[in-house]
Amino acid sequence: MQGVTGIMLAVVSGSLTSAIGFVVWCSTIRKLTAMCAAAVQLLVPPVAALGGVLFLH
Predict the structure, then answer these.
(1) Domain that holds residue 28
(2) What is the pLDDT of residues 3-21, one digit of tens each?
(3) What CA–CA distances, in Å, run from 32 to 22, 25, 50?
(4) Which of 10, 27, 44, 54 has its CA 20 to 30 A from that of 20?
(5) Model pTM greater than 0.85?
(6) Could you give the CA distance from residue 47 to residue 36 in angstroms, rounded to a whole number?
(7) Would you say 32 and 40 are in contact if contact means Cβ atoms under 8 Å apart?
């Protein structure tokens, strides 16, 4: 039973954080030029990887 609860909490928290990120991105992208928005989108994976490395150390 605990495994199911953990999975459900993971799904809910992932959905919630994804929704918040989407809302922030959609409200921010209107203020950026196309070139700047593209650069920001391309920087997200390396920044996330660096954050993961720092968090795990």
Answers:
(1) 2-56
(2) 889 999 999 999 999 999 9
(3) 15, 10, 24
(4) 54
(5) no
(6) 16
(7) yes
